[in-house]
Design brief:
Strand order of the largest sheet: 1-2
Largest sheet: 2 strands, antiparallel
Number of domains: 1
Order of helices and strands: HHHHHEEHHEEHHHHHHH
Number of strands: 4
Mean pLDDT: 90
Length: about 350
């Protein structure tokens, strides 16, 4: 905000470029959480209830983001623009980093225990899952493998934002500075993400026997998942290539459409990683307290009725995605410029 936008007018362009889209992010987060709750209630209660402080910190970052966009330019803003810009910086730094750390725990494990015998107990006071320490998720920040993905997501978010500014803002100064900043941010992202990917693929992963449901550590588990599910491996490679192409087309040409390729690549890559996490007899939420407490698709999913209902609901996903694509293109049809805000006819974030 203060390196790309060196004055008030430039900062307003950056904030308004993103401010018109924050509802998409917030809606996606809510839908994602709701889908997890409906399909995998045991994961939802274990992670969101156990890693309480980790998730609450992420949620707090999203709350101050929404407030900042709406109140930054409100009349009689007693806190001042700089306060809300600081909130936006906190969300952009802490929120993205912690989301990466949280996703990494799906590979590396978390400190929870589960008493599966209590699942059938008809007592509202019975506790099914519990956390093994008082940090309630924040201890994940201290593990180096989690930090790799946390830093990757942080610099990925910065790289995506820079490509988006290049695409969405009609300002030569912002264009030049964004392109220059993209070199460093994209390089750091690639170094940390490739390192995380190599470490995970060639580390031991949590597998389970489909006959006995016993969880055990298997060497190169996630690598074998990609080998045994070649379509997932191809999708992962395709996603990474699209991200690289989006970054490369932005850096080495005058194209401003790199964000579309990189954005599509990120979606495909994340989807592939989630499939790699849960399929092929893999524990998608390993327990560091006892591997047998680990959550799998089989032992943590909802009832057959709910899963069938969710499968019908999922048929709407292509229509929702098409609407988001349509709405996003409609909002981005015209590039932002300083002249647009000087007229006073538009809502200013």
């Amino acid at each position: 905000m203060y390196t790309i936008g060196r004055n008030e007018a430039k900062r307003s362009l950056l904030v308004n470029s993103l401010g018109r889209k924050w509802e998409f992010t917030f809606t996606t987060l809510v839908v994602f959480g709701g889908a997890f709750f409906a399909s995998f209630p045991l994961f939802y209660s274990t992670s969101f209830g156990g890693a309480y402080w980790l998730w609450m910190t992420i949620l707090f970052c999203f709350i101050i983001q929404a407030i900042s966009y709406e109140y930054r330019s409100k009349p009689a803003n007693v806190l001042g623009k700089k306060t809300f810009e600081t909130f936006l910086f906190i969300n952009g730094a802490v929120g993205t980093f912690l989301l990466g750390v949280t996703v990494a725990t799906l590979f590396t494990g978390a400190n929870f225990s589960i008493d599966f015998s209590n699942l059938a107990a008809n007592d509202r006071n019975v506790t099914i899952s519990s956390w093994a320490n008082a940090y309630h998720g924040l201890e994940a920040v201290a593990y180096w493998k989690n930090l790799l993905l946390g830093i990757s997501v942080f610099f990925l978010a910065r790289s995506m934002a820079l490509m988006y500014f290049i695409n969405n803002i009609n300002d030569s100064e912002i264009y030049t500075r964004s392109k220059k900043a993209l070199w460093l941010n994209a390089l750091i992202f690639l170094v940390f993400f490739v390192t995380f990917l190599v470490v995970i693929l060639f580390s031991r992963g949590y597998a389970y026997d489909p006959e006995t449901n016993q969880v055990f550590l298997q060497p190169y588990k996630y690598f074998y998942n990609l080998v045994n599910m070649p379509i997932v491996g191809v999708l992962l490679l395709m996603g990474i290539v699209l991200v690289l192409f989006g970054i490369g087309s932005t850096l080495f040409s005058t194209s401003i459409k790199g964000i579309w390729f990189a954005g599509s690549g990120v979606i495909i890559t994340v989807f592939s990683l989630f499939i790699c996490l849960g399929f092929n007899h893999t524990a998608f939420y390993p327990s560091l307290v006892n591997p047998q407490y680990s959550l799998t698709i089989e032992n943590s999913s909802s009832s057959l009725y709910t899963l069938r209902t969710m499968s019908y609901v999922s048929l709407l996903v292509p229509f929702v995605a098409a609407y988001i694509f349509y709405a996003w293109r409609a909002i981005n049809k015209k590039q932002l410029s300083e002249a647009e805000f000087s007229s006073g006819d538009n809502h200013v974030y």
